[in-house]
Amino acid sequence: GQHQAAYSKGPTNHIERFNNTLRQRLGRLVRKTLSFSKCPKMHEITIHLFLHRYNLEHQNILN
User: Fold this and answer.
1) Structurally, how many domains does the chain consist of?
2) Which end of the chain is more exposed for a tag (fewer CB within 10 A), N or C?
3) Is residue 3 part of a domain?
4) Are the C-beta atoms of 17 and 25 separated by less than 8 Å?
5) Using CA atoms, how far apart are residues 5 and 9, in angstroms rounded to an integer?
6) Pairwise CA distance, residues 2 & 61, whole Å
7) This model's pTM is above 0.85
8) Which residues, in sequence order, are CB contacts of 15 under 8 Å at separation 6+?
9) Does residue 58 sit within a domain?
10) How far is CA 60 from CA 17, 22, 45, 52, in A?
11) Is residue 29 one of the residues assigned to a domain?
């Protein structure tokens, strides 16, 4: 089948912006960096900590 043009870019832009924020703030997600996790568990913990802090910051902004 052929691809169809998506005229609504709202949700996609929001997701792409969040992914960019994640890469900017977490060096371990960027290719060829010195900041990396030696084990998958630490990688997961770091991402969870980032998400927790990010959500707290945005909750404070909205209130």
Assistant:
1) 1
2) N
3) no
4) no
5) 10
6) 42
7) no
8) none
9) yes
10) 20, 19, 23, 12
11) yes
Which residue, 51, 62, 61, is CA-closest to 22?
Answer: 51
Place of tokens 């924020």: 21
State the distance between the two ends of the chain, measured CA to CA, in whole angstroms.
Answer: 46
Beta-carbon count within 10 A of 28 CB: 15
Q: Could you tell me the residue range of the domain that residue 36 belongs to? A: 10-62
pLDDT tens by residue, 33-53: 677 778 889 889 988 999 999
Q: Is residue 46 part of a domain?
A: yes
- The amino acid occupying position 36 is F
Alpha-carbon distance of 23 to 25, in angstroms, equals 6
Q: Tens digit of pLDDT for each residue in 1-36? A: 676 666 666 678 888 888 888 888 888 877 776 777
H helices present in 1-63, as ranges: 10-25, 40-62
